[in-house]
């Protein structure tokens, strides 16, 4: 199967790229191995995406983007891409069902939660250790939970958890939060929340499920036990770059380096959204990246029209 543009990943960046690409008249396929919408589908409330006076869920927002993309003729293919290569100017992606070719590829593979890598974390995942407050928060009604991290995700999700839990501890390794000031202020004002500063989790303990966290204070080296029923880990994100890590220039964190046209170091291959090196990972910046990437891909296809057609005819 031959496309003008193949987009890998159907989060906000991929959906936006799909809308711009298909609306521009390009034959466009979006591949998604999991759920359409990406990481943001688990966000309970999005209140900073322009155009919606009332907050809406990540699922609702991305579903709207999906429907809009479909209206313009994007083909959604729910297959996992297991390999990606280049043959001259042509790009080839491979799934268990076969090979697909395209003139241009836009990488929108996003990112996934970083783990703490402490004893007990793996053992108790699903039994008190969670990376998704939206999914598991309601299980902790009137219970005590901890959130690890001090960024926007940690504090927003901790605030969400106060709807259910009777007490929410935030464990942060420094003495000031990284989260935006407006979110911090809400946290400081919430009577159910308590921040444990300068501390890290050394171990997650329990019999059959999480019962306590062993904390160490980084300033005093004091070790203490904190009794909790669950712990939510929000210590940042890592790039989904396995498909192309050896072939494309990445930064030291493994995120894709692009120019302002979203072009990677491979001609005709673009990257958009959380997978890119960027200062602000938000739905609004992901959709912006997607639009620019699709526009750039279209321009590149037009500029290389003759060479692409010769290769296609081979
Ligand atoms: P983040 O901003 O990278 O924050 C990660 C937090 O985890 C930091 O506070 C960091 O501490 C801490 N941390 C990292 N490794 C740790 C470890 N091994 N042990 C303990 N703590 C550790 O990640 P994020 O909160 O997931 O956000 C990712 C991106 O999405 C950001 O750009 C964020 O602005 C954006 N986001 C925005 C919103 C919103 O605007 N509504 C909501 C969610 C996410 P240090 O502070 O000491 O480094």
What is the makeup of the main sheet?
7 strands, mixed
- Helix content percent band: 25-40%
Oligomer: single chain
Computed structural class: alpha/beta
Distance between the termini: 15 Å
Radius of gyration: 22 Å
Q: What is the count of distinct domains?
A: 2
- Mean pLDDT reading: 96
State the total count of DSSP E strands.
Answer: 17
Number of helices: 7
Bound molecules: NADP nicotinamide-adenine-dinucleotide phosphate
The residue ranges in which pLDDT falls below 50 over 5 or more consecutive positions are none
Summarize the helix and strand pattern as letters. EHEHEEEEEEHEHEHEEEEEEEHH
Description:
By secondary structure, the chain is of the alpha/beta class. The protein folds into 2 domains: 2-112 and 237-313, FAD/NAD(P)-binding domain (3-Layer(bba) Sandwich), CATH 3.50.50; 115-233, FAD/NAD(P)-binding domain. The chain is 25% helix and 27% strand. It has helices at residues 12-23, 58-71, 133-136, 152-161, 181-189, 283-303, 305-313, and strands at 2-8, 28-31, 75-77, 83-87, 90-95, 98-107, 111-113, 129-130, 144-148, 167-171, 193-196, 199-206, 210-217, 223-227, 230-233, 237-239, 269-271. The strands form 4 sheets. Strands 1, 2, 3, 4, 5, 6 and 17 form a 7-stranded mixed beta sheet that branches. Strands 8-15-9-10-11 form a 5-stranded parallel beta sheet. Strand 5 and strand 6 form a beta hairpin. It is elongated, with a radius of gyration of 22 Å. The model has no long low-confidence stretch (mean pLDDT 96).
């Amino acid at each position: 199967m031959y496309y003008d543009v193949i987009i890998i990943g159907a989060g906000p960046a991929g959906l936006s790229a799909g809308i711009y690409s298909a609306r521009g008249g390009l034959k466009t396929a979006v591949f998604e191995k999991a759920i359409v919408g990406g990481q943001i589908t688990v966000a309970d409330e999005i209140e900073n995406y322009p155009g919606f006076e009332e907050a809406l869920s990540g699922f609702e927002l991305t579903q709207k983007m999906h429907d809009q993309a479909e209206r313009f003729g994007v083909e959604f293919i729910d297959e996992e891409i297991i390999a990606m290569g280049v043959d001259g100017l042509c790009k080839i992606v491979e799934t268990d069902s076969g090979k697909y070719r395209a003139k241009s590829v836009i990488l929108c593979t996003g990112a996934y939660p970083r783990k703490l890598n402490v004893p007990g974390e793996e053992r108790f995942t699903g039994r008190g250790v969670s990376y998704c407050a939206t999914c598991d928060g309601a299980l902790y009604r009137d219970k005590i939970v901890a959130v690890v991290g001090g960024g926007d995700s940690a504090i927003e999700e901790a605030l969400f958890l106060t709807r259910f839990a009777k007490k929410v501890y935030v464990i942060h390794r420094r003495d000031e939060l990284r989260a935006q000031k407006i979110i911090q202020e809400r946290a400081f004002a919430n009577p159910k929340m308590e921040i444990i500063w300068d501390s890290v989790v050394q171990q997650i303990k329990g019999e059959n499920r999480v019962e306590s966290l062993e904390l160490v204070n980084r300033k005093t080296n004091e070790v203490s036990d904190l009794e909790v029923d669950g712990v939510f880990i929000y210590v940042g994100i890592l790039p989904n770059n396995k498909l192309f890590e050896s072939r494309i220039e990445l930064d030291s964190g493994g995120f894709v380096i692009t120019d302002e046209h979203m072009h990677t170091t491979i001609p005709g291959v673009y990257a958009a959204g959380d997978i890119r090196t960027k200062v602000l990972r938000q739905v609004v910046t992901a959709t912006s990246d997607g639009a620019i990437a699709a526009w750039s891909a279209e321009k590149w296809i037009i500029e290389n029209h003759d060479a692409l057609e010769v290769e296609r005819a081979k």
